[in-house]
Amino acid sequence: MTPAPQTPPPRKRVVIAGGGTAGWVAATALIRQLAGLIDVTLVESDDIGTVGVGESTIPTIRTFHHFIGVDEDAFIRATNATFKLGIAFEGWDRTDARYFHAFGSVGRSTFVADFQHFWMEARRHGFAGDYGDYSLELQAAAQHRFALDRDETLAYAYHLDATAYARFLRSIAEPAGVRRVEGRITQVQQAADDGRITALVLESGERIEGDLFIDCTGFRALLIEQTLKTGFDDWSHWLPTDRAFAVQSTATEAPVPFTRAVAHGEGWRWKIPLQHRVGNGLVYSSAHLSDDEARARLLAGIDGEPLFEPRLLRFTTGMRRQVWNGNCLSLGLASGFVEPLESTSIHLVMVAVTWLIQHFPFGDDSAALAERFNARSRREWEQVRDFIILHYHLTHRDETPFWQSRRTLDIPDSLATRIALFRESAMAYQDQDELFRTDSWVEVMLGQGILPNAHHRLPSTMPAAQLQTALTDLKRGIAAKVGGLPKHADFLRRYA
Ligand SMILES: Cc1cc2nc3c(=O)[nH]c(=O)nc-3n(C[C@H](O)[C@H](O)[C@H](O)COP(=O)(O)OP(=O)(O)OC[C@H]3O[C@@H](n4cnc5c(N)ncnc54)[C@H](O)[C@@H]3O)c2cc1C
């Protein structure tokens, strides 16, 4: 007997609250990957608007764009994007010191010993040069050069216009089937028995029911916190900056292919060049600097004309105790915030959406999926947190109470162990699922002034002349590649 045809289970209804970068990234990815299996509705309020910052990214954005089928040319044109090869850190170790955290790998490692051990050995002989001499991305950035090629020679990310990016994603998501509803959410309804969210009610009276709710309402965290009272792990004792002034300005020079992160007495400032303007911001600790002083300091340090009044943004560093709670998952600023020193927030949104697609709750229960998701999220967030603390803690600056307090800080054990390992043996590592590669840890630890006491002695078994030749060849190869690249600004002009 042929089995009776079964009716397919009803499609899961996903409701996204909020249409900033997080909301539209989630909507686009979900509809591109799970169309036909789910319905997606996004609610956003034009009156409330978005946070309007978040313009520097890391290379994982490209992997994500491949995953959801974003066309790079269209993206660059729509968001006035420029290319980014890393971040220049100015004044972090000492006021006059500078180092670069470049994307891509540095030098050449072996199975036994990573490149920094070879560099340390060369240093012992006196012919090492700078560690950054062996980074293609750093050398290209230093000369303001960039080009795309088929071999993907350079590891790169983008600087983008955040508002235009949300608009661009919307232009993909809506035709693909996402339903957009404009309006202010005034009520979040819950089931009487288990507190599950059942619907969002808008000012207009419209009621939007769903099975899974994604909170992308920014710092308001309307669903995950205001409604579900999930709780927040506050990390501000480790990272005390809690405010930023942001302003865009006219460009006075050709855009460089890197973000600048310039330390000041009570925090740091960013400069992010786009095709048509520059994004500027001053991050600071309100316990150490007044808002008026911060605003004045920001404006005094910008090169062009400000395009509007600086906007004040308040934040607390930390993350939700559960990023996924019941039938509500939070993304973006609603899930937490670690300051943007390494441009990680948009990355965290993209990783979380990818995991959601992999862990999508098609059944009636999702407790085990949520538990696994939350454990992964926590690990990822804590690794990012540690990496950011590293920049503050390993400083020789002591001219202000802010920097003095950073040096003497009790840091998380996980970070203390890493620093001790590097100091003792030049050993660094990338943990399972970790964002930051070994090269990143080494670049920042060296840049922040640690010179390891010892290194792996494998390179010492090579004759010094052979080591020197190998390093010279590496530098020559990099110089030849960089010399063949056009200036970033020229490339952009032709490309965009
Ligand atoms: C100072 C600063 C600098 C940053 N720099 C970077 C960076 O360089 N790189 C990076 O990766 N990230 C950065 N970020 C983080 C980045 O801005 C965010 O991760 C990203 O913009 C996502 O924001 P969001 O979508 O979560 O929130 P938002 O942009 O705030 O969007 C919230 C959405 O929710 C809607 N909403 C809220 N309440 C309601 C309601 N009641 N009814 C209906 N709709 C509602 C709003 O209208 C809006 O659409 C930075 C953040 C800050 C604060």
Mean pLDDT: 95
Q: Strands of the biggest beta sheet: in what spatial order?
A: 5-4-14-15-16-13-17
**Span between termini:** 63 Å
Give the helix tally: 15
Small molecules bound in the structure, each named once: flavin-adenine dinucleotide
Q: How would you describe the shape?
A: globular
The structural class is alpha+beta
Ranges with pLDDT <50 over ≥5 residues?
none
The main β sheet shows up as: 7 strands, mixed
Helix content: 25-40%
Number of strands: 21
Q: Which percent range describes the beta-strand content?
A: 15-25%
Computed over alpha carbons, the radius of gyration is 24 Å
Task: Give your account of this protein's structure.
The strands form five sheets. A seven-stranded mixed sheet has the order 5-4-14-15-16-13-17. The protein has 496 residues and is of the alpha+beta class. The protein has helices spanning 21-34, 60-68, 72-79, 115-125, 136-142, 162-176, 222-227, 291-300, 345-358, 367-393, 401-407, 413-425, 438-447, 464-483, 488-495; strands at 12-17, 38-44, 82-84, 86-90, 98-102, 157-159, 179-182, 185-190, 197-202, 207-209, 212-215, 232-234, 243-249, 259-264, 267-273, 278-284, 311-314, 318-320, 324-325, 328-330, 336-337. The model has no long low-confidence stretch (mean pLDDT 95). It starts with 11 loop residues before the first strand and ends with a helix. It is 36% helix and 19% strand.
